[in-house]
Write a structure and sequence with these properties.
40% of the residues lie in helices and 14% in strands. It is of the alpha/beta class and 523 residues long. The strands form 3 sheets. Strands 2-1-3-4-5-6 form a 6-stranded parallel sheet, sandwiched between helices. Strands 7-10-11-12-13-14 form a 6-stranded parallel sheet. The longest helix is centred in the middle third of the chain and has 18 residues, at 227-244. 40% of the residues are buried. Bound molecules: cobalamin (B12) and iron/sulfur cluster. The site of cobalamin has 36 residues, from α1, β3, β4, α4 and α5.
Length: 523
């Protein structure tokens, strides 16, 4: 049977990384089937395009996965596929949280023939077999014979054959406008491909922050892959990058990559010992980054950026969403420790919490400016279905758009905040993005980084220009030209340094994006 796995885009921004679930389920598909993958972020499709694709490729089953914010588009695409006579199975966090919605058991139209609840590693082969026999059930749940939920172990995690898959649609270089590619080649970046690959080394997070779906979905039992399996995957990617004359970076998508610091350190040591370093990004909560040894190993193993949900600079706000383990008075020290090792942070903030008052963006920005530069991102507190936050706000009658996902609008509140109006909260988030990614802020960030390596400066600048696109989508050529023109001073300054390094290379600073050695002593 020919199977299509499809992940819709959110119709607003472009995602920069393929979704792991598609590759994982492809690897877990029993032999004898052909699995096609389409990520709407890389290959935007209308309902008609999708139906044509399905007909041309004789697809017999379509699997659709989506986060809450893409679900509206996912349903639209699913409706078109079903109308063309091909069965649809849906999976992922959203349909697990509200399974009655895709199955039309809530009195609204039905969108899926079947749903896969929770982690589908073990149910997927059964779904494929049933679909082939034409006996799809409505619900597939990972349960044992007593009906108790079973979380898959990651001991026998499959090797995802990245090197044998057609990764063309995920080649980020191809999405760069020609002009940007030419500019990058002046900086020595002449790669044929650039792939950001998602890898999971473990699942689960026990922290239970009120707004987060992870503890409910993956459970508080943490599971890890073996070090060997993760390192082998990295080595395969390194071989792929060599073969393609391209560049590979990795996003460890674990919710809390250092949730068990002893295990994380042992994995990082093995990466170093086996020479499996590639530049990587991971999500780690700030409380785990007090550990100097861990940070040093992160740097030596290729870690470049750490995504941290700082959420708020107000301890009371943090307590109100069960995230009191974040300590705002330690943020600066943690970020400085990372920066000493040439590791930087993507710091995520949420506005609209109960303690927020007008001016919260400015107060946050004032504090952020006193830290080493990173990539701050801002969002509004969003009640995702089946989270404790959703239930609290629903009980208090504060939800203004209880099914906000069916009318998804980015940066739009779905509930009444306490100390600020809906309009003010939305304005705060706009202001935070505009100020953080203004040409003035980008120029001053580059000034701070002047004493850092050329590589650090180049990556900061590229990320700053790209992250701007999360709030101000930069889809067209004119948008990019405008951004480049506005930021011409730091770009030209960096270009001059690149030319200088090319013709008068500095022995201690090669023109390369390979992980640089940490300035700190090794562990
Ligand atoms: C990596 C990641 C990102 C990446 C990019 C996504 C990507 N390209 O991979 C980035 C950083 C960009 C990101 C952004 C956001 N993310 Co995010 N992200 C994740 C994260 C950490 C990992 C996703 C992952 O690959 N997991 C591992 C795979 C194996 O698990 P899985 O996707 O759940 O798939 C399994 C099952 O669900 C199932 N399955 C999934 N799909 C399908 C489909 C079929 C057909 C079947 C049968 C089964 C099936 O089978 C898989 C194997 O068991 C998850 C948390 C998590 N641990 O999952 C959050 C998560 C998905 N993100 C979340 C959110 C909220 C966001 C943002 C909205 C945050 C924000 N405010 O900006 C944005 C939205 C991005 C967008 N494009 O619009 C929420 C989603 C909640 C929800 N109900 O939708 C999650 C769950 C985290 C959370 N805090 O609750 N994210
Ligand atoms: S620490 Fe992160 S992943 Fe864990 S519950 Fe909190 S927000 Fe979710």
């Amino acid at each position: 049977m020919n199977i299509l796995l499809y992940n819709p885009d959110n119709e607003v921004t472009n995602n920069f990384m393929p979704h792991l679930w598609m590759f994982l389920l492809k690897s877990l598909t029993p032999p004898g089937h052909n699995v096609f993958l389409i990520d709407g972020n890389a290959r935007r499709m209308s309902t008609q395009d999708l139906v044509e694709y399905i007909r041309e490729n004789h697809i017999g089953l379509v699997g659709i996965g989506a986060m809450t914010r893409m679900i509206r588009k996912a349903y639209r695409m699913a409706d078109a596929v079903r109308a063309a006579g091909v069965p649809v199975v849906m999976g992922g966090p959203h349909v697990t949280e509200v399974p009655d919605e895709p199955l039309g058991r809530d009195g609204e139209p039905r969108h899926a023939d079947a749903v896969a609840l929770g982690e589908a590693d073990q149910t997927w082969p059964a779904i494929v077999a049933d679909a082939e026999r034409g006996t799809l059930k409505e619900v597939y749940a990972p349960v044992n014979t007593d009906g108790k939920e079973v979380k898959p172990s990651l001991d026998d995690y499959p090797m995802i054959p990245w090197d044998r898959m057609d990764m063309d649609q995920f080649n980020l270089i191809k999405h760069f406008p020609k002009m940007a590619r030419r500019l990058l080649s002046l900086f020595g970046m002449t790669w044929q491909s650039f792939h950001l690959i998602p890898i999971e080394s473990g699942r689960g997070c026990p922290y239970g922050c009120e707004f987060c779906t992870v503890t409910g979905f993956f459970g508080d039992s943490i599971r890890f892959r073996s070090n060997e399996s993760v390192v082998n995957e990295l080595l395969m990617l390194k071989a792929l990058e060599k073969r393609e004359k391209g560049k590979v970076a990795v996003f460890f998508i674990d919710d809390n990559f250092a949730i068990n610091p002893r295990r994380t350190k042992s994995l990082l040591r093995e990466i170093i010992a086996r020479g499996a370093q590639v530049p990587w990004v991971a999500q780690i909560s700030m409380n785990l980054l007090r550990d100097e040894e861990l940070v040093s190993l992160i740097a030596q193993s290729g870690g470049r950026w750490i995504f941290m949900g700082l959420e708020s600079i107000d301890p009371e706000n943090l307590k109100s969403v069960s995230k009191g383990f974040n300590k705002p008075n330690e943020y600066q020290a943690v970020l400085e420790r990372l920066a000493r090792h040439n590791v930087y942070a993507i710091t995520s903030f949420i506005f609209g919490m109960d303690g927020d008052r007008p001016g919260v963006a400015q107060r946050t920005l004032d504090v952020v400016r006193s830290w080493p530069p990173g990539l701050p991102v801002f969002g509004l507190l969003t009640p995702y279905p089946a989270t404790p936050l959703y239930d609290r706000l629903a009980t208090a009658g504060r939800l203004t758009r209880p099914k906000h996902w069916l009318e998804f609008k980015p940066f739009t509140m779905a509930f009444k905040p306490l100390g600020i109006t809906v309009d003010q909260a939305e304005e705060e988030v706009r202001q935070a993005w505009a100020s953080t990614y203004s040409p003035q802020t980008i120029a001053s960030t580059m000034g701070w980084l002047e004493s850092r390596t050329f590589t650090d400066r180049l990556i900061h600048l590229l990320c700053r220009l790209a992250f701007r696109g999360i709030y101000f989508p930069q889809m067209k050529r004119q948008d990019w030209l405008h951004v480049l023109f506005q930021n011409r001073v730091p770009i030209l300054h960096l270009l001059a340094q690149a030319l200088e390094l090319k013709f008068k290379p500095h022995p201690r600073e090669p023109l390369s994006l390979e992980p640089q050695r940490s300035a700190e002593p090794t562990v």
